[in-house]
């Protein structure tokens, strides 16, 4: 089962947009440009609130133990 996690490698800010790009297997630049477009269209404050909510709700990827 595929799960959405915040990105550890494609991280700018909280790693939400990088995590979305990893989930959909899309270039992170495209997701960030789409996020910028949405922020401009809706206004910065609604996008910032949604990003903050996503940063709180989307979990970090669990660390695997190496033995």
From TrEMBL:
Q: Which PANTHER family match?
A: PHAGE SHOCK PROTEIN C
* A Gene Ontology term for the protein's cellular component: plasma membrane
Does the keyword Transmembrane belong to this entry?
yes
The regions listed as transmembrane in this protein's record are 29-58
Lipid metabolism recorded as keyword: no
Membrane topology qualifier? Single-pass membrane protein
Q: What is this protein called?
A: PspC domain-containing protein
Localization recorded for this chain is:
Cell membrane
For this UniProt record, the keywords arranged alphabetically read as follows: Cell membrane, Membrane, Transmembrane, Transmembrane helix
Q: Which residues form the Phage shock protein PspC N-terminal domain?
A: 2-60
């Amino acid at each position: 089962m595929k799960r959405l996690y915040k990105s550890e490698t494609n991280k700018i800010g909280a790693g939400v947009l990088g995590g979305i790009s990893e989930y959909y297997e899309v270039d992170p630049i495209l997701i960030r440009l789409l996020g910028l477009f949405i922020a401009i269209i809706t206004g910065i404050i609604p996008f910032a609130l949604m990003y903050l909510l996503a940063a709180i709700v989307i979990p970090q990827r669990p660390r695997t133990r190496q033995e």
